[in-house]
Structure formats: structure tokens, C-alpha cells
Amino acid sequence: MNGSDSPDDERYQELAQSNFADWRLIVDGLFGNPAEFSLPQLREMPARTQITRHDCVEGWSCIGKWKGVPLAEVLERAKLKPEAKFIVFYCADALDAFSNHLYYESLDLVDAFHPQTILAYEMNDRPLSIPHGAPIRLRAERQLGYKMAKFVMRIEAVAAFDQIGQGKGGYWEDRGYDWYAGI
Predict the structure, then answer these.
(1) 82-106 burial, b for 16+ CB within 10 Å, e for fewer?
(2) Contact indicator for 177, 142 with CB cutoff of 8 Å
């Protein structure tokens, strides 16, 4: 439920115009080997394909076929430090027209390392479109849709999220939603 179909962020729009050729996923925070990955580099990593149902907190659902790199693969390559407890996803879209706060979401390590948690770059055998979160989006299949961040630009490993946003672990959580949105 990152609500927007296309971020207004100027940098994102430039990246989209070049079909994300210059886009890089920044992986930093509590990692022994912080990294940046291009979309082709992510596509070269082991991939997972899964057909799953997306359940939205608003009451709708749909089924899609997703392909992407398991999040665990990215976390292992960047060498997650033992003090890391959460993975935070920062996105290109701002849902609040009255602030410059960008959408963000977080997972604990149990869900981050779950085999079905992927950074998806394809939907239904096609490259991920902008309305569906291009160039990559989080798919955390054990969670409701608002946990599945679109337009992911950066991943940060943290020990706590009390210094991020309002300290509740996500854009919607800062507005009263439950942090754990398991289905």
C-alpha cells in the first residue's frame, strides 16, 4: 500500500527515463561490506519465482507471479553484522504531500531471511512496471501489502528504528498501523 503509482521524486523520474540504467540499490548501515547493486547485478544473483496472493489492508487481494533475488542473498553479500535487528527499506515515493518524508518500511530478520521474501524485479513474466514499483519492490509474502515497499532505493540494517521517522518502523506504522502485519 505504498499508494502512489509513480513517485514524483525528480531523481527517480530521471532514472525511469533511462530504464533504470543508472539506478543503484544502496545497502548500508550495520553491514561489514556495505554495497551498491545495479539492476543487472541483482538479476545475475540467484533468483526465486513464486505465485502468491497480495492481501491489502483495504480488503482487496490479487494473485501474481513474482521473480526476484531473495533478500537473504543481498544481506549475506553485504555481510550483516550481529547487532543488526531490523532491515529498513527506503523508497522513492512520498505519500504525504505536506512533508518531504519518503515512504519507508521495515522487517525483522526472521521475515527478512524467509525464503519467500524477495526483491522482485519481474511481475507476471515481465519487468516490473513503474505502477508496480520498478525497478524493484519488496515482496514479504507473510505480511500484508503495506509492508511490501515499492520503488526501493536503499536498504539499511539497524539495531532499532527509534531514530527513523516517528520510531515505529514504517510510514503507515507512524500513522497508527501495526508494525507486524502478518497474515
Answers:
(1) eebebbbbbbbbbbeeeeeebbbbb
(2) no
Was domain 10-175 assigned CATH 3.90.420.10? yes
Least confident of 25-29, 94-98, 179-183: 94-98
Using only C-alpha atoms, what is the Rg of the chain? 15
The x, y and z cell numbers of residue 39, run together, are 539492476
Please give the single-letter amino acid code of residue 54. Answer: H
pLDDT digit string, tens, across residues 158-168: 999 999 989 99
**Cα distances (angstroms) measured from residue 173 to each of 17, 104, 152, 165, 179:** 32, 10, 18, 10, 6
In this structure, the number of other CB atoms found within 10 A of the CB of residue 126 comes to 10
